[in-house]
Amino acid sequence: MSVVDTMAREQRLDLLQGTLDLLILRTLQPGPMHGWAISERIQQISRDVLQVNQGSLYPALHRLEHQGWIKAEWGISELGRRARFYKLTAAGRKQLELETGDWVRLSTAISRVLEEA
Amino acid sequence: MNFYDVFLRCRAIFQRHRVEDELEEEVQAHLELQTRKHVAAGMTIQEAQAKARREFGAIALAKERCRDERRTGFVDHFRQDFRYAVRSLRRDVVLTLVALFTLAICIGANTTVFSIVNSVMLRPLPYPSPERLYWLGERMGRNRAETTIGADYYSIREQNRVFEDVAAYGTRTLNLTGVEKPEQLDTALVSPSFFKVLDSQPLLGRVLAEDEQGVKVPHIAILSFRFWRSHMASDPRAVGKTISLDGFPYLVIGVMPQGFDYPKGAQIWRPLSMDERNEQPRRVDRPMHIVRMIAKLKPHISERQLDTELSRLTASVYREYPKEFASAGFLEGMKILATPLQRQMVGDLRPALLILSGAVGLLLLIACANLANLLLTRATARQRELAMRMALGSGTARIVKQVLTESLVLALPGGVMGVIIALVAVTVLNAWKPSVLQNYPPLMLDVNTLAFSFGLTFLTALIFGMAPAWTAGRIRIQEALKSTGPVHTSSRSATRIRHLLIVIELGVALMLLIGAGLLGRSFVKLATTNLGFPADHLLTLRVNLTGGRYATLVKQKQFYDEVLGAVKRLPQVKEAAFSSDLPLSGDDRFYSGAKFEIAGHPLPMAQRPQAGITVVSREFFKTIGIPLRAGRLFGLEDTERSRDSIVVNEAFSRKIFPAEDALNRQIVIGPNNPVKWRIVGVVGNVQGGQLGAEPLPLIYRCLCQGSGAELYRTGLVVRTIRDPHSAIGAVVAQIHSVDRDEPVFDIRSMEERLADSLAPRRFYLLLIGTFTAIAIVLSAVGVFGVLSYFVIQRNREFGIRIAIGAQSAHVLGLVLRESAMLAALGIAIGLAGAWGVTRYLDSMLYGVTALDSLTFTSMSILLTAVAIFASLIPAMKAVRVDPVIALRED
To answer: Which residues in chain A are contacts of B71 at CB distance < 8 A?
Structure first.
């Protein structure tokens, strides 16, 4: 492992258990995306704070697919080769709403405790 | 779980390669995109690729986690275990083959017996709602509750609240006349409700109308499908035609569809002539109709409700009888009983089938013990391998699963082979059609049977896989891996299980042996029973006189005299006689029986003894060879004017006159009968309707005496000079020379009758004998296996013993002692088991008790001999252990 990596890691946060699913769903809200793009997007938007572990990303995609929240279709990537594009399903949209609500309530509650306790 | 998930999981299972390829492609696409990103940032291709891989982490792990998300792991594991099992079983060809054949034979045997049980007992009767059909019978005194008094039929039909309808019927054989070849027909006389109870529609025409019953019923007939096909060439216009029965014309009003076959074998249904107004005033001094009854329960009536209703009906019917009946003891223990129709029809076969099922079940148990032992030996041999896998992180559950998969891999092809064996057996049985199965639909491997075999296969796999799985789950990794010696250092518990299994196996085998031994002895005793007359050179056949033309005694006697004269003229005939009953006719009831009292000692009806009455022609005793014990036989002095002479059998004289001489005593038959019969002779007993039955008191009357000895249905007995079969043609021709229109049937030599009456037993004995033989072979294989293992395990010990000078005999003794000990324990279990269960054989035993000590002892000795014999080869191996090699091992 290089020195750069180690330094970079210090500024990044590992994802909380279960939040990856939420992030994936949210990332897919605007439109279909393949796995790499999802991880890039999360990293980008979080300004490199959230690092998606690839070892977790693909199992998570599998899991969400099995739950029927996303659907995979083959499309053509930027490189001009086949890639699996994931798309939110109707059930996925509902789930996203639900989980977003939960998350907002939870984080508000936690911040409140952290600020006022 | 949603549909899409199910779809994806199915895809993961059935298109596994494609799903895997897609996963690989997805990962590669990711890596390429990541590489391009790094290249764009200024890295070389190699650096970028390496970095992308590093960032991705362990690809294999990620993929494995993806697979976990599919949640199809159990299938993947099964797939792995399956392949592994097949591979390891292929390595051990002998063991695999032994196991496969054991399974195939035992599952085949079980499936065959099940198909018999299925055909006879389980396949529902071919009528709508068969589970609601019941047989009704009245138990009165010593009656067997198979029949009902005609008057009570009307009462029950009218008063009951649980049956949709109740029907009465009787059976009667008639002659089909007016045709080229006269023929016997089984017909049924039925009430109109009969067809309602069985809820069946005719194929052509109609069934009986409600008013077609009473004293005078029209001469109408409903034909069976079989009769319609064979005698009317399936004529679609058969309805309206006429057939002739016993010389009377009958109008055909309908044809029943194929499969309508109740009572079994009936060819024609006619109206039952019986009238409520004549039956209902029950009177002691008048004979009453006796009918058989079937009924259909209303829907949703429980057993309890039925029982309650039957008790109520019994009480109500009882009250309808005038006082004299009760005081005469007629109604003693009266009870109306209902039996499910199917069970009633299975009748006597039921215990035998249960015994057969028990026997094959035991056989399967033996097979399981054997297979468990085989697999256990292997499991022990593989202990180190399993321990290694556990050390590498395999869970106990995973190992147990793998061992069970292995037993399943063995069991499935075994089960399939078993079904094939059963298919062959069933085909053979259907072609052979043993007499026991004659009245039942052909055996089939239907859905039920196949489901049974596969259920059995899985169960077997589970049972015989349990022992090895259990020991596999208890492996202590450290010990197993530490031991460097030969792989046969098995744990004590495994050895103990193995010995326990073989002991149980021997015990069960002994139970089968004892059962088969008891049945075998019964068979021999029965086959060698003294019939009471020499059975060789006897031809027997039956003739039924057509009612109309032989209505008078004179006409009948003329026919009999002419036939006897014609037959006796044949050069190949020594003697001939008529008798109303033929020995070994297969029927255990009297042709006709009567209650009587000794003259001068009046008794109330209920207390009078009963005896069968057989009407014979003068030379009957001489022809068949029944010895005279006292007095005289019928002779020329017995004529129409001397109608009081009777001959009785020994059973009669012993039972009725135990202390006195029966000769010249007089008896009176029936109520208010002025005629007294005088006993002029006592003859030996003969085996009556059924072989092995206790001889019953019997009265012989002479055909020559006239009135009171009418004889429509009769048997002809002919003693021939040479083989009775060679005389058949000539005898039948002589009968037809007297009357062309009389059907002659049931033509068999007496020896054939004997063989036929033994046939059911021979069939059961054959099956149980086969199972027992298989059981013995299996136990021998089992003992051989366990002792071979015992010798290998103690190889070193034997080597040392031999090195320090042990004699061959001593080493031999060590091994044999081991097997004798196992046998002894097995025998203890087997004797206890047999002692507990042979009582269920009671109904099939003759001349031996269920605890016959000779059988118990001899079979135990036989089993010990088998065990010792099976251990001879391992014992010889022990003797030949080379101490040098044995000690060098490790």
So the answer is: 66
Residue type, B144: R
pLDDT > 50? residue A1 = no
B771: distance to nearest CA of chain A, Å?
A: 53
- Angstrom distance (rounded) from CA B460 to CA B371: 9
B26/A35 CB distance under 8 A:
yes
Given A1, A54, A59, which is nearest B69 (Cβ)?
A: A59
With CB atoms and an 8 Å threshold, state whether A55 touches B4: no
Most confident of B173-177, B194-198, B586-590, B661-665: B194-198
Please report how many Cα atoms fall inside a 13 Å half-sphere around the Cα of residue A81, on the Cβ side.
Answer: 11
Nearby residues of B10 by Cβ (< 8 Å), 6 or more positions away: none
Interchain contact, B32 vs A81, CB within 8 Å: yes
Name the DSSP letter for residue B382. Answer: T
What pLDDT is recorded for position B870? 92
In B, which residues are within 8 Å of A62 by CB distance? Answer: 66, 69-70
Residue B841 has which token pair?
């054989």
Position with higher pLDDT, B595 vs B570: B570
Asked if A18 reaches chain B (Cβ–Cβ under 8 Å), the answer is no
For residue B276, how many other CB atoms are within 10 A of its CB? 16
pLDDT of residue B487: 46
- Taking an 8 Å cut-off on Cβ atoms, the answer to whether B5 and A67 are in contact is yes
Task: Please indicate whether, in this complex, the C-beta atoms of A66 and B68 are within 8 angstroms of each other.
Answer: no
- Name the strands in the sheet holding A70-76, side by side, starting at the edge strand that comes first in the sequence: A33-34, A82-88, A70-76
Residue B585 has pLDDT above 70, yes or no: yes
Please determine, for residue A14, whether its predicted confidence score (pLDDT) is greater than 60: no
CB-based contact, A80 to chain B, within 8 Å: no
Q: Please name which of B767, B857, B42 lies closest in space to residue B359, comparing C-alpha atoms.
A: B767
**Domains in chain A with CATH codes:** 3-116 (1.10.10.10)
How buried is residue B693: exposed, middle or buried, by Cβ count under 10 Å (0-12/13-18/19+)? exposed
Q: What is the ipTM of this complex?
A: 0.83
Nearest Cα of chain A lies from the Cα of B17 at a distance, in angstroms, of 16
B52 to chain A, closest Cα gap in Å:
10
Q: Check: CB of residue B592 under 8 Å from CB of residue B750.
A: no
Residue of B508, B481, B498 lying closest to B375 (CA atoms): B498
Q: What is the pLDDT of residues B384-397, one digit of tens each?
A: 777 777 777 677 77
In this structure, what DSSP letter does residue B437 have? G
Tally of CA atoms within 13 A in the half-sphere of B513 that contains its CB: 28
What's the rounded mean pLDDT across residues B603-618?
82
A92 touches chain B (CB under 8 A): no
Check pLDDT > 50 for residue A9.
Answer: no
**Residue B252, beta-bridge partner list:** B221
Q: CB A36 to CB B4 under 8 A?
A: no
Of B22, B30, B68, the CB nearest to A36: B30
In chain A, how many H helices and how many E strands? Answer: 5, 3
Pick the residue from chain A with its C-alpha nearest to B19: A62
Interatomic CA distance for residues A92 and A95, integer angstroms: 5
Decide which of B1 and B432 is more confident.
Answer: B432
CA distance A103 to chain B (A): 24
What phi and psi values does residue B880 have, to the nearest 5 degrees?
-90, 10
- At B716, list the tokens: 């002809």
Q: Say what the pTM is.
A: 0.75
